[in-house]
Automatic annotation (TrEMBL):
InterPro entries (alphabetical): HAUS4, HAUS4_met
Protein name: HAUS augmin-like complex subunit 4
Span of the signal peptide: none
A Gene Ontology biological process term: centrosome cycle
Transmembrane segments: none
Amino acid sequence: MSAGRESTHVSSLGKGDSLHQHVLASFPLCDLTEEDLTQNPQFCKLLATLTQHVDQTGLTVPLKTELDKAEQKLQSQRRQWLRSESLHKGLQEMIQDHCIRKHHATTPPDQNMFFETMEKSLLVSQCIRQLDLSSTTNQDQPSILGLTPHHVMELMPLEKNVQRMKQGLPRELEKHLKKKCLSLLSYYQPEWEGESEGLKSSKLFHLSAQLDKEKKRAESLKETCRENSVLLQRQTQLYLSELIKCIQLLQSLILDHRLRIQTDLDRKKLDYFEGKCELVLQKIKTEMVEIQLDTYTVDSISAHKKIREKLDSELKACQAEKQSVELKLASFEILGKDFEALAEEYCRLRQEIEMKNWALKEFTQYNDK
C-alpha cells in the first residue's frame, strides 16, 4: 500500500522535464544535472519520493521541527544576553564619556558623584560575578586571592548614593541611548543630520522598521544570489558538457577531413619533389656543359666525343667477347676435372710452341745477318 501511495505521489509530481525540475529545485545542494536524472529514472523517482520527507538542506521533517524549536530558544536566550550586554556596554560608554568631559571641562559635583557611584557599582558587580562559584561543578575550587563576595560587597558606595544613582540612571541612560540612535540615524541617512530635533525623533521611531526592511531585502538578495549561484553552476556544467561534445565532434571532423585530403596532399608533394629533382638534374647538366665550355674548345669537345664513342664501341666489343669467353669457359667447366688437366697441358704446349717459334725467329734473323 505504501508503494502504491509513493507511486501515486511520484506520478502527481509530473513527468519528464517537470519531474526533473522539481527534483533539482528540491535538492539545490546536490551536484545533479537533468542529464543525470534522465539517465537514472529510478533514482529520479527515489529523490522525488524523498521530497515529502526532507527539506532542501537534507533534514527530515521531525528533525527540522526540533531544530526550529532549538533555534527559537537559542534566539530568545541570545536576545536576553544581548539586552544585558548592550545595557552593560551602554553604562561603560556613559562612564567613558563622562571621563572625557571631565578632562575637557568642569562638571557639577553631583554629576561626578553619580558616575563615580555607577562605576564603583559596576566594578563590584563584575567582581562578584567572577567570585561566585555557585554555577561551577567543583564546589571545592579555591577562591581567587582568598576573596569572597562578602569582602567585595564592603567596597560598595554608600546606600544613599546608590539609591540616588538608581533614580537618575533611567533618565541618563535614555539620553545616552537617544544620542546613539540619533548618531545611527545620521549615519544611515546623512541628509537628515540638519533636520530639527523633533523631526529626527519622529523619524527615529521608523528607523527600526526601515532597518528590518533593509535586512529582509538583504536576505532576499542573498537568497537570490544563492539561487543564481546554483543555477550558474548547473548551467556551467551543462555548458561544459556541451562544449566537450562540440570539441569531440570537431576533432572527428578534422580527422575525417585530414584523412580525406591526405592522398591528394601526398600526390601533390610527390609531384613537387619530382619537379624539383628534374630541375636539379637539369641544373647539374647545365653546370657540366658550362664547365666543359670553360675548360675545352669546341674542336676539343668534338674530338673527345669521337674518342669516347670509339672507346665505348671497343668497350662494348670487349664486353661481348668477355661474355662469349665466359660462356665457353662455363661449357668447358661442365666436362669436369679431366678436361681441366687437358686444358693445363694444352696451355703448356702452347707456351712451348710460342717459345720455340720465338727461338726459331731469332735464329733465322741471326743467320740472315
